[in-house]
Amino acid sequence: MIKRKGFSQKVREEVFRKYDGHCAYCGKVLTTNDFQIDHLIPVARERFGLYTSEELETFKNYMPACKRCNHYKRAHSLETFRKYIEEIPYKLARDNYIYKVGLDYGLIEEHPRKIVFYFEEIEKEKEELKNQKYL
Predict the structure, then answer these.
(1) In terms of C-beta distances under 8 Å and separation of at least 24 residues, what long-range contacts does 102-108 make, across chains too?
(2) pLDDT in tens, 90-122
(3) Residues 70 and 28 sit within 8 Å (Cβ to Cβ)
(4) How confident is the model at residue 1 (pLDDT cuts 50, 70, 90)?
(5) Which residue of 14, 23, 93, 114 could cross-link 28, Cys pair, CB 3.0 to 4.6 Å?
(6) Could you tell me the CA-to-CA distances from 28 to 22, 36, 55, 69 in Å, in that order?
(7) Where does 2-115 show beta strands of DSSP type E?
(8) What is each CA distance from 51 to 5, 55, 92, 111, 114, in whole angstroms?
(9) Which residue in 31, 42, 130 sits closest to 80, CA to CA?
(10) Nearest Cα residue to 96 out of 107, 88, 86, 85
């Protein structure tokens, strides 16, 4: 079991720069004081024997995250996190009276769509640039 410990200042700086100071999930601009390091593959997966500490505690698995994304993702997989975000409009419409009033008065517009995380967009752009370089 991974014993939780803090990250060194060097690791924090490297993770912060990984996506140029943006949350890997929502793309929000972060500051060095308010970002958190999320494990893309949750540490809880080790408990089930799916991964080892060595696989989980790597730079590749560390993602810069805003507090909201890190807390909402919790120990979920990326796909579960994506599904939960995509379900937000439906849950609000089902469970929140004030949200329904906002919809009725046109103060809120729903835009259901497939969620693509910021880091996925960045990685896709990097791959496209790499492919153009080799053409």
Answers:
(1) none
(2) 999 999 999 999 999 999 999 889 999 999 999
(3) no
(4) very low
(5) 23
(6) 5, 13, 27, 10
(7) 36-39, 62-65
(8) 18, 6, 35, 36, 28
(9) 42
(10) 88
